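Researcher: Structure prediction, please.
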Amino acid sequence: AATITANRTDAGGALALTANTGDLTLGDGSAGTTAMLTATNGAIGLTGALTAGTGATIQAANAATLGSVTTTAGDISVDAASIGIGSATAGGALSLTANTGALTLDTGIAGTMAALAAARDLRVQTSLTSGGASTLTTGANARLTRVEATGGAVTVTANSGAVTGLTGTTGATLIARGAG
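Model: Predicted structure follows.
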């Protein structure tokens, strides 16, 4: 479809929505297995919650503005020009990549590893917790409240900026509890 707007979608199996030329806007969605949202040449707006059993993949040529994304057993992967996400809870890995813009995550939980990357500023508003390593990379500044890896290392790289607390004047809390 050119543009997709849906208030709610439910799929007992897989859920796949693709907007080829416009934006994809979704209120709430659920999938028994995998969920895939794609805006080939546009943006994705998820105003509510997306829940999937074994994985969620979200790809947008422009911005991805997401309320809540949850998987019970699988990975969450978001790849867009810029990303703003309220909460992401992955039973597996959490991978967020903002290719040309900023990435803002309010709360993130990954059952295994977490990898966040942004071409511009990267912000963790409340917390990011991973069962494995947490790797955060930004082309500008990393503004972090709390990042914890319960089973691995925490690595933060700000290629042309600083790593600070959320306001820029306070320190970031980084906790690595595992080997790695």
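Model: The mean pLDDT is 94.
Researcher: Thanks, that helps.
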